[in-house]
Specification:
This protein is of the alpha/beta class. The protein contains 8 helices and 9 strands. Strand 1, helix 3 and strand 2 form a beta-alpha-beta unit.
């Protein structure tokens, strides 16, 4: 059904009302109901046609594997959010996991469509949407025996700071004079802190705690973990016409799902740490 057809439907509803009975409130109400039903059926039909047009069209979304968020088996909060956004429109969402820097590369080179997740404007040649899908506590893991008087971001001054290769935390921290050493993974980073080859490892608080569980070569009791800042997480889209279209769909659908409660329901289902949205605000 075209927009012109919708206008004709609405006009038909009014034109078929007996004008001699315009003063009859019951007939006016009936006419309004007929118009609203026509509009409803139009949008229902349009949504179905759009989904049919997109049937089996694949969207490839790539991410590092994060516990309960982007698991390798396709489960997780972030995967579910992206499926809720695109699958009702007929897209077939394909999940792929690799390390963070390769995730970015695959989308920058337009080999894949979307990567999760990124801080706003963190990467070049990537399109960013208006809506974030989560936020994380960015923290530092350090040894109190090395940094005795922790002063938040000021404690980075003159230190050697490590983070996983490809992460650009320096863009989001108060810029002080510190050296950066990229590491292959968080386990390696914690080992370097433990051996005092670097002064601290910066990453999401939850990821640091998980890395402690995976690295039995370090003793968690020797470390402190302190929050530095909170940063919103966004999907990154390929810088192409297709990427622009997928980004626009993401923004429209995410806002709809946020305000109808479906995003909150997913966060509750996964017992997420916190819900980083003010639903009554514009963003």
């Amino acid at each position: 059904m075209t927009h012109g057809t919708m206008r004709e439907t609405v006009c038909w509803c009014f034109s078929n009302t007996n004008h001699r009975d315009n003063g009859n409130p019951a007939l006016v109400i009936t006419t309004i109901k007929r118009v609203m039903m026509g509009v409803f059926l139009f949008f229902l039909s349009a949504t179905g046609l759009y989904a049919e047009d997109r049937k089996n069209e694949e969207i490839i979304i790539v991410s590092e594997s994060w516990a309960d968020a982007t698991e390798k088996d396709g489960t997780g909060l972030y995967w579910d959010i992206m499926r809720q956004i695109y699958e009702p429109l007929g897209y077939n969402v394909i999940n792929f996991t690799t390390n963070y820097s390769r995730s970015v590369y695959l989308v920058q080179t337009q080999k894949m469509d979307i990567f999760l997740g990124s801080y706003i404007d963190e990467q070049e040649d990537i399109l960013y949407p208006r809506w974030h899908f989560d936020a994380e506590h960015v923290a530092a893991a350090y040894k109190p025996s090395v940094i005795k008087d922790w002063q938040g971001q000021e404690s980075l001054q003159g230190r050697t700071v490590g983070w996983v290769k490809g992460y650009g935390y320096d863009e989001y921290l108060v810029r002080t004079n510190f050296a950066i050493q990229e590491v292959k993974n968080r386990r390696q980073g914690l080992s370097l802190v433990d051996s005092e080859r670097i002064d601290m490892l910066i990453d999401a608080y939850s990821e640091i705690e998980e890395a402690f569980q995976e690295n039995n070569k370090v003793d968690r009791r020797d470390f402190a973990v302190s929050v530095l800042t909170n940063l919103k997480l966004y999907p990154g889209f390929s810088d192409s016409e297709r990427g622009k279209a997928l980004r626009d769909i993401y923004d429209q659908r995410f806002e709809l799902l946020l305000y109808n409660g479906q995003i909150a329901a997913l966060f509750k289902q996964y017992e997420w740490e916190f819900f980083p949205f003010e639903v009554n605000s514009d963003k």
